[in-house]
Amino acid sequence: MNSTFDDQSPSYRWWLLANVMIGTFMAVLDATIVNVGLPKIMASFGVGIDKIEWVLTAYMLALAVMLPTSGWMADKFGYKRVYFLGLLLFTFGSFLCGYSSTEDMLIFSRVVQGLGAGMLMPVGMAIVTREFPPEQRTVALGFWSIASAASVSFGPLIGGYLVDNFSWPLIFDVNVPVGIAGMLATAIIQKEYKSTRIRSFDPVGFISVSIFLPVLLYALTEGNAATNSAGWNSPVVLACFGIAAISLAVFLVTELTISEPLIDLSLFRNFNFAISNLIILIFGIGMFGSTFLLPLYLQNSLGYTAIQAGSVFLPVGIIQGISAPLAGITSSRINPKIPIITGAVLLALSFYMNSFLSYLTEHWYIMLSLYLRGVAMGLMFSPLTAIATLSVPREKMGQASGLINVLRQIGGSFGVAVLSTVLTTRVIYHSQVYGEVLDQNSPVFKSIMGNIGNFLVHNVGSTAATAVQQGKFLLMSFVSRQAFVQAISDDFLIAAVITVVSAIPVFFLKIKKNN
Question: How many other β-carbons are positioned within 10 Å of the β-carbon of residue 278?
C-alpha cells in the first residue's frame, strides 16, 4: 500500500492533513448526529430510553477502549495501515447501522463504528503531529481541531435534515461514500510509517478494561430497566457488579506491575495531571451525559421536527471554537484557574436554566442556555488540557493525550447511563405523583372531564360514551407527557450539581506564577 504522492513535496503534508480531517470529522460527527434521530429510532423499534441509550453508549465505549490500544497498533503495523483499517471498520459499521433491522443489531453495529473511530482520532492526530515541523504544527492542529468542532455544530443539523426528509438509517448510510473516499485518499496520499521502538502489547490490561466498562454500565442501566422486575437486587445486576469489580482489580494490578502497561498509570503521580483528569471525568458525566436529553425534550414535548431540534445546536460548536483560543491566550497571561472556574459556573448555570423546562418554554430561553454552554466548553477545555500536560515528559505526551480522551469518553458513557437511568426512574415517580393527585370524585376533575367531553362531542363528533373514554385517555396522555418533562428537568438539575462538583478540584491545581 504505497503512496503515489511525493512525501518530500511541501504540499504533501497539507494533502495528508486534509486526508486525516475526513476521518476526524466522521468520527466526531457520529457521536453527535445520532442524538436528534433517537425519537425516530425508538419509535421504529418500539423500545424505551433504557434500551436505546446503548446506541450512544456502545459507540463511546468502543471508542474509549480503542484509544489507548490504537497507538500500539500503529507502532506495530504502521500508521497508514491502522488509519486505513479504522476507516474500513467505521465505514463497514456505518453500513451495518443503516441496514439494522433490530435494536440489538444497531447496537452491535455501533460497536464496530466505535472501534474504527477509536483508531481514527488518536492515529490521525499522531500523523499530523509527526509530519508537521514545530513551526507549522500549531496551525496544522488548529485545522485538525476545526474538523472536530464542525462536527459538534453540524452533526445534529445534518442528522435532523436526513431524519425529517428521508429516514433515520440515512444518518449512517451517508458515511459510506465519504468513508470509501477517505480510504481511497489514504491509499493514494499517505506514506507508510512504522515506529523503530515497539512496546509490548498488554493483553491482560486490554481484556480486563474491555470487560469492566461495558459490564459496569450494563449493571447501571439494567438496575431500573422496565424489563427488570427485581431492580437492583436482580442476580444479573449483582453478578455484573461483581464481574466489573474483579475486572477493575485485575486491570489496576496489571497496569501497576508490568513494565509496559496498556495505560501508563504512573502519569497520575503528576498531581496536576491527576486532578485535571478527575475534573474531566466528572465534567464528562454531566456534560456529555446530558447531550441526549435536549433533543428528546424538543421533539417529544415541544413538537420540534428533527431538523429544528438539530439547528439549536449549530451555535454551540461555533461559539466554542471562538472562545477556546481566547481562553488559551488569556490563561497564558492570568491564572488559568479563572477561565476554568468561569466556564464551570456558566455550564452549571446553563444546566440549571434547563431544569425549569416546561411546555411553555420559549425558544430564546433554550438558545440562551446553549450560548452559555458553548462559551463554557471553550473556556474549560483549552486551559484544563494545557495544565494537565504542562509537566508531562515529552516521551509520555502521547500516552497522556490518549488518557485524557479515554477518561472524557468514559465520563460521557457513565453520564448517559446514569442520567438515562435517572430519567426512567423520575418519569415513573412523577407519573405516580400526578396520578395520585387526580381525584375522580373532585369537582375540578368532573368539570375538566365535562369540558373535554363537550368539546369532543361538538367538534370531533364523538358519542357521549366514547367522549368519556377519549377524555380520560387525553388526560392521562397529558399527565404522562408532563411527567416526562419534569423528569428531563430533574436530570438537568443533577447535571448542574455534577458540574459544580467538577469545579471543586480546580482550586487544588498547582499553578506556577510567572516571574
Answer: 16
Q: For residues 62 and 69, what is the distance between their CA atoms, to the nearest angstrom?
A: 11
Distance CA 18, CA 136 (A): 15
Q: What is the pLDDT of residue 368?
A: 93
Contact 203, 118 (CB under 8 A): no
Question: Coil, helix or strand for 353?
Answer: helix
pLDDT at 3 over 80: no
Q: Cell 491482560, residue?
A: 204
Compute CA distances 380 → 184, 320, 386, 469, whole Å. Answer: 37, 10, 10, 53
Whether 75 contacts 160, CB under 8 Å: no
**Is residue 1's pLDDT more than 60?**
no
Q: Would you say 77 and 86 are in contact if contact means Cβ atoms under 8 Å apart?
A: no
Residue 504: DSSP 8-state: G
CB-CB contact of 140 with 132 (8 Å): yes
Average pLDDT, the chain: 80
* Cβ neighbours of 458 (radius 10 Å): 10
Q: How far apart are CA 442 and CA 69, in angstroms?
A: 64
Query: 402, 67 in Cβ contact below 8 A?
Result: yes
Q: What is the pLDDT of residue 406?
A: 76
Q: What is the mean predicted confidence (pLDDT) over 223-247?
A: 78
Sign of CA dihedral 1, 21, 308, 297: positive
Would you place residue 95 in the very low, low, confident or very high pLDDT band (cuts 50, 70, 90)?
very high
User: What is d(CA 12, CA 300) in angstroms, rounded to the nearest whole number?
Assistant: 49
String of DSSP letters for 353-372? HHTT--TT--HHHHHHHHHH
Contact 83/190 with Cβ under 8 angstroms?
A: yes
In this prediction, residues 443-448 reach a mean pLDDT of 68
Q: How many CB atoms within 10 Å of residue 6?
A: 10
* Structural contact between residues 24 and 144, judged by C-beta atoms closer than 8 angstroms: yes
Identify how many contiguous H helices and E strands the chain contains and give both numbers: 19, 0
Closest Cα to residue 268, out of 256, 257, 258? 256
Residue 206 dihedral angles phi and psi, to the nearest 5°: -65, -50
Whether the CB-CB separation of 421 and 223 falls below 8 Å is answered with yes
Q: What is the DSSP string of 183-229?
A: HHHHHHHPPP---SS-PPP-HHHHHHHHHHHHHHHHHHHHTT-TT-T
Per residue in 290-338, pLDDT (tens digit) is 777 888 888 888 888 888 888 888 888 788 777 877 776 776 677 888 8
The pLDDT of residue 441 is 67
Residue 442 has pLDDT above 80, yes or no: no
pLDDT band of residue 515 (cuts 50, 70, 90) is very low
Cα dihedral 359→361→362→366 (10° resolution):
-120
**The model's pTM:** 0.78
Task: Quote the Cα angle for 181-186-189, to 5°.
Answer: 115
Which H helix or E strand runs over 64? helix 49-77
